[in-house]
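Morning run. Coffee first, then this:
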Amino acid sequence: MEPDLNALAVFALVAEERNFRAAADRLGVTRSAVSQTIRRLEETLGIALVQRTTRSVSLTEAGERLHAEVAPAIADMRAALDGTEALRGRPRGLLRLAVSSIAEHFLSGRFLAAFTDANPEVQLDITVTDAEFDIVAAGYDAGVRLGEVIEQDMIAVPIAGEERQLAVCAPDFRDRFGVPAHPSELASFRCIGWRPEPNAPPYRWEFADGGKEFSVAFAPEITTNDMALMIKLAVAGAGITFGMEASFRPAIARGELVPILEDYCPRFAGFYLYYPSRRNIAPKLRALIEHLRRRA
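And here it is:
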């Protein structure tokens, strides 16, 4: 027998109120509708649950037993619904994000700390990953990626301005070995590559010349999936490397790295916060979107 959960909820209200009219008023339906629902439930179960008179409503022994069994579950469901209503009103709860490791602006401690300070009832769960996957199927509320890899059915909010990728090396490496005049010459130099995860191919080095984009294929002498290690190796003079300008900016400012091939490194649309198109966005995600727009 397939249980009629709606009928059980109506029965629970009748049992609480001991009055069909009062139960109907709480449900926003007619007294007749409540009476018919209870009658169908009794017919399904094959036993009387309610004793009706012109003046009162009471429960039979079967009705008392059923009410004792279902009342706690009904109360739990009401509490769950109340909790959902509360979530609709103000930012609270767990906010799960999948963020690219090279989204430097978003991952800056100051940006996220300011968000949690302004929204103390929101708990952030951030997975830093460069794998491309369906964030909805994986249970994430939103993600942060370069705009060019975000699917068209997503809503995307820009995080900052344009970005660019740079080739860089240490001043000592430049002084000892020189630097290529064109990206096509990179194969003649020691290079340090990066891969997003252990089994992925090394990240392609992409350039542009006269508005025409092209990539350079070669085998780096060193490849790692750790961006921090890649930068340390470049600073130590191990070779030329390539990545987001924001990742190199601190080392460039300290004079530890110098940009090369800048004429072939155009700017492009940067990182976006993206999330599935929904009519009702949870307050916790809406708060992050508004925080982002205020600080963009």
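The longest helix spans residues 61-89. Good start to the day.
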